[in-house]
Amino acid sequence: MDEREKILQAQNLTVSFRTNEGMVRAVRGVDFDLYKGETLAIVGESGSGKSVTARSLMGILAPNAVVDAGSILYDGVDLLKLKEDQFHKYRGNKLGMIFQDPLSSLNPIMKIGKQLTESMLLNEKISKKDAKERALKLLAGVGISDPERRFNQYPFELSGGMRQRVVIAIALSANPEILICDEPTTALDVTIQAQILELINSIKEERKLSVIFITHDMGVVANMADRIAVMYAGKIVEYGTADEIFYQPAHPYTWALLASIPDLDTKEKLESIPGTPPNMLFPPKGDAFAPRNKYAMAIDFEEEPPLFQLSPTHYAATWLLHPNAPRVEPPRIVTERIRRMRALGGEA
Question: What are the phi and psi torsion angles at 248 (to 5°)?
Answer without folding.
Answer: -135, 50
